[in-house]
């Protein structure tokens, strides 16, 4: 596997020379400053590519070329936005960048309720707490009929939480769920937004009446138009699974399990229409057996996120160590052995040691990821 690292561009506080020192060879990045929906010009792609190559590294993967909301909910301007997407893809291909990751999650990309959950060993990790998430849905968003989506036990706990939660804790919950985890990945709610909940509610309203079937059709419509361009320019598109892999906030999610992935790969049956195998996202759904999925979908996988999660008895999920958890990374490394050129990156390392007070993007601190990178590199050395 090619050992890559997600780096957030020239402003990232982790430098490319730091990454060279720890054995990274490929870079995963994006033109983060370009707003979603606008074209990525060739000159800008080349400029960043040269910057990476001057450091003795390779720009291996784009993560992400984000898909505009209007493409997902089939808004009036979707065809224009798809045209722009095709131009960006063609420009990437012309510059020699062959792997492009994206996702098709409505409104909100990855979801966590806590960014600093203390662990027994003294490190901190990301966490998804079912009750706190339901609280956000029912009491903060006040989504119509939200209670119908939760069982009695959760609703009871949500009511109990309402008795003790402070205004500051509520603000923090909003900040984590819809601002801090989203801003740095070109999400829909920006850091500094004065009314994040109101913005978020407006975005949710775009999906009224859009069920799983309709969202699938919108994804198919998009793929039918962009895959021929990807093929022409020899670019592999690879969708990121939904994180977490189940419906949230009344929104459908369509990359959650074996049946969904089967559907997606057959919807446009072309090798350029592929998968980002995010082991942690898939593993956070108790319905998924991660190695079984890897065995089945490895031939259409273009990029691997080697990360692991654990689902707790109460349904919450947590980032596991890269050596443990439901993903079974050693087994995945064995499964991907026949694909030696496939780029992999580690993900969501714990916050630890002197990284605690630094201003890293959530899940993207240095030392925790470096530790995971060393663990995974060791596994690769032994197993392949
Ligand atoms: C979070 C990431 C996601 C991922 C996108 C890909 O840490 O794994 O934001 O980059 O979903 O489009």
Keywords:
single chain; 384 residues; alpha/beta; TIM Barrel; 2 domains; eight-stranded parallel barrel; four-stranded antiparallel beta sheet; 14 helices; 42% helix; binds D-mannose
Summary of the model, kept short:
The protein has 384 residues and is an alpha/beta fold. Helices cover 42% and strands 14% of the residues. It contains 14 helices and twelve strands.
Q: Give a short account of the largest sheet.
A: 8 strands, parallel, barrel
Enumerate the strands of the largest sheet in spatial order, edge to edge or round the barrel: 1-2-3-4-7-8-9-12
Number of domains: 2
Instruction: Determine the mean pLDDT.
Output: 97
Low-confidence stretches: none
Shape: globular
- Radius of gyration from CA coordinates: 20 Å
Which small-molecule ligands are present, each listed once? Answer: D-mannose
- The level of helicity is 40-55%
CATH architecture of the largest domain: Alpha-Beta Barrel
What is the name of the CATH class of the largest domain?
A: Alpha Beta
Number of strands: 12
Structural class: alpha/beta
- CATH-defined fold name of the largest domain: TIM Barrel
* CATH H-level superfamily of the largest domain: Divalent-metal-dependent TIM barrel enzymes
How far apart lie the N and C ends? 9 Å
Q: Estimate what percentage of residues fall within beta strands.
A: 5-15%
Helix and strand run: EHEHEHHEEEHHHHHEHEHHEEEHEH
């Amino acid at each position: 596997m090619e050992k890559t690292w997600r780096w957030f561009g020239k402003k990232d506080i982790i430098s490319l020379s730091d990454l060279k020192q720890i054995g990274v060879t490929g870079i995963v990045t994006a033109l983060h400053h370009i707003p979603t929906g606008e074209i990525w010009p060739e000159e800008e792609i080349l400029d960043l590519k040269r910057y990476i190559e001057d450091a003795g590294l390779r720009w291996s993967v784009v993560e992400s070329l984000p898909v505009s909301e209007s493409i997902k909910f089939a808004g009036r301007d979707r065809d224009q936005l798809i045209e722009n997407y095709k131009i960006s893809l063609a420009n990437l291909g012309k510059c020699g960048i062959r792997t492009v990751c994206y996702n098709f999650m409505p409104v909100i990309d990855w979801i966590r309720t806590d960014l600093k959950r203390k662990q027994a060993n003294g490190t901190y990790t990301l966490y998804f707490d079912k009750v706190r998430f339901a609280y956000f849905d029912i009491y903060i968003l006040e989504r119509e009929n939200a209670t119908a989506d939760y069982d009695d036990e959760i609703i009871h706990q949500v009511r109990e939480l309402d008795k003790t939660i402070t205004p500051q804790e509520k603000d923090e919950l909003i900040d984590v769920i819809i601002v801090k985890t989203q801003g740095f990945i070109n999400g829909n709610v920006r850091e500094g937004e004065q009314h994040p909940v109101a913005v978020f509610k407006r975005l949710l309203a775009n999906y009224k009446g859009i069920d799983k079937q309709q969202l699938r059709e919108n994804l198919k419509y998009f793929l039918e138009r962009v895959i021929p361009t990807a093929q022409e320019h020899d670019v592999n598109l690879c969708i990121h699974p939904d994180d977490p892999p189940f419906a949230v906030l009344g929104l459908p999610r369509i990359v959650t399990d074996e049946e969904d992935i089967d559907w997606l790969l057959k919807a446009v049956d072309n090798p350029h229409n592929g998968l980002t195998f995010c082991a942690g996202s898939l593993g956070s759904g108790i319905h998924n057996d991660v190695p079984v999925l890897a065995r089945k979908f490895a031939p259409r996988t273009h990029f691997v996120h080697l990360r692991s999660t654990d689902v707790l008895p109460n349904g919450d999920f947590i980032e596991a160590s890269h050596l443990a958890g439901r993903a079974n990374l050693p087994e995945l490394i064995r499964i991907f052995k026949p694909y030696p050129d496939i780029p992999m990156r580690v993900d969501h390392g714990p916050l630890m040691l002197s990284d605690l007070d630094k201003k890293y993007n959530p899940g993207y601190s240095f030392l925790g990821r470096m530790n995971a990178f060393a663990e995974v590199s060791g596994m690769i050395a032994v197993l392949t």
